[in-house]
Amino acid sequence: MHTGSCLCGAVRYEVRGDLGRAVYCHCSRCRKASGSAFGSNAVVAVKDFAVVKGEDSLKTFSTPQGVHRMFCANCGSPIISRRDSLPDVLRLRLGTLDTAVPAAPSAHIFVASKAEWWEIRDQLPQHAERP
Length: 131
What we know:
This protein is mainly beta. About 5% of the residues lie in helices and about 40% in strands. It has one helix and ten strands. The protein has one helix at about 30-35; strands at about 1-5, 10-15, 20-25, 40-45, 50-55, 60, 65-70, 80-85, 85-95, 110. The strands form two sheets. Strands 6-7-8-9-4-3-10 form a seven-stranded mixed sheet. The protein has a three-stranded antiparallel sheet with strand order 1-2-5, with no helix packed on it. The chain is globular and about 35 Å long.
């Protein structure tokens, strides 16, 4: 099991299963949501994710395309995102985990839209969009 929380500690969650494939996402939406050059995300089954404290502190930003990003309303920490088109999975923001991540992200995705000021220096596979 993995546990995690937001920056202020108002929101705490558990992942009661395995973390799925983790990636570095360079799309403009992940950059905006993270305030950084990329988002570090892992796929998690919805059935394995549980908010154990502070569900009332979670707020959601939804797009017309059916993407929902949940964050702490107190400190702004991004926690998860989900898509209407993929109802059984969510994407967990790895930086919010309090437990060790079992494996580093395995690829860079959406590098066609990465920040021009960021240079990828590792040897991980790079995909122009979602593979």
